[in-house]
Design brief:
Order of helices and strands of chain A: EHEEEHEHEEE
Shape of chain B: globular
CATH topology of chain B: Ubiquitin-like (UB roll)
Strand content of chain A: 35-45%
Strand content of chain B: 25-35%
Largest sheet of chain B: 5 strands, mixed
CATH class of chain B: Alpha Beta
Helix content of chain A: 10-25%
CATH superfamily of chain B: Beta-grasp domain
Number of helices of chain B: 2
Distance between the termini of chain B: 46 Å
Shape of chain A: globular
Oligomer: heterodimer
CATH architecture of chain B: Roll
Largest interface: A-B, 43 and 24 residues
Helix content of chain B: 10-25%
Radius of gyration of chain A: 14 Å
Number of strands of chain B: 6
Radius of gyration of chain B: 13 Å
Structural class of chain B: alpha+beta
Strand order of the largest sheet of chain B: 2-1-5-3-4
Distance between the termini of chain A: 19 Å
Amino acid sequence: MALKIPGSLYDQLRQHGEATYPHECCGVLVGEFDEAGEKAVKNVVVCGNTRTDSPANRYHISPSELVRIQREAMLASHDIVGFYHSHPDHPARWSPTDLAEAHWTGCSYVITSVEKARAVLTNSFLLLGQEEVKRFEDEELKVIE
Amino acid sequence: MAIKVLIPTPLRPYAGKQSVIEVTAQTVGEALSDLVGKHPDLRKHLFSDDGKLRSFVNVYLNDEDIRYLSKEATPAKETDTITIVPSVAGGR
């Protein structure tokens, strides 16, 4: 299973991390699930990080934003397929906090490492399992034209 | 016309793969009860063992978080939409 994303949207989410450096950025990936379990991103929705108390190492998307994004996605016959955030001066891998705070099983969590305001690596992780035994698995990120 | 409940992606496997489920209720609590009555597998994903909504489950009546209304006692009418959204957070 993979997450497919157009190059322009891939660049957009990486650039968001550069723009918010040294703070974490965050946003929502809207698109489609196909029968094979692959996800195709059609839109990147930039969100605010409500963790103004600790934005350098924490992010949180307002539920009211999620509600609005969910409804708009459904009107466009799309769906929330995942989320993205950045790790300033930190690897593009999920942390224990990322896992503890992840609840959208079946969705992708995309993380970009941003070093000295430059996006370096972007990885995608698929959240699997139920809340008590959830886990992240590495997921192929296909950047398409 | 019934109250629409929007089901987020992670909960659809327990709701017959549906993204929208219609329920009949006078309050948000009754709507959620009707929902889990129709789809019992949803219960443990929405509620903890003490019967309370799990802390990371956000429930909105139209555009308002029920925590800031009357919680499950919040009145609901047929033209309302209830949206369930699990929290999204994390960090390095």
